[in-house]
Amino acid sequence: MIGHGLSLSPDLTLGLILVGCSSGDIMSNFVSYLANADVALSVSCTLASTVIGIVATPLLVWLLVGQAVPIAVGGLAITVLKVVIMPISGGMLINTLWHRPLQR
Predict the structure, then answer these.
(1) CB–CB of 80/50 below 8 Å?
(2) pTM of this prediction?
(3) How far apart are CA 28 and CA 9, in angstroms?
(4) CA distance 11 to 26
(5) Rounded Cα gap, residues 5 and 79, in angstroms
(6) Any residues with CB less than 8 A from the CB of 60 and at least 6 apart, and which?
(7) Which of 58, 74, 77, 100 is most buried, by CB atoms within 10 Å?
(8) Whole-number mean pLDDT of the chain?
(9) Phi and psi at residue 100, to the nearest 5°
(10) d(Cα 80, Cα 23) in Å, to the nearest integer?
(11) Torsion of CA 56, 59, 60, 62, to 10 degrees
(12) What is the predicted pLDDT for the residue at 93?
C-alpha cells in the first residue's frame, strides 16, 4: 500500500516489505537497561522475536508480495546463533557462575 502510494519500483517495494517484516528490537535491550526496566524480559522478547523471525519473515513476505523470496534460512539461523543466542547464553553462564561479584 505504501509502496504503491509512493510509486516505488517493485524492488524498492519488496525492500520496504522486508524491512517492515524484520525484527528490530535489539536496541530495546539497551534502552531497557538505561531506564532501569526489566532487561531480562527485554532480552527474552528479543530472543523470541528473532527466532520466530527466521520463519515469520519469509512467510510474511510471501503473504504480502504473493511470491516466495529466496532467503538462506540456514545462513540466517547460523547468524542468529552467533549474534543472539551465543552472547545471551554466555551472559547467562557468566551470571550463574559469578553472580555475586557481578551484582550492582
Answers:
(1) yes
(2) 0.58
(3) 32
(4) 26
(5) 34
(6) 17, 21
(7) 58
(8) 78
(9) -60, -50
(10) 12
(11) 160
(12) 87
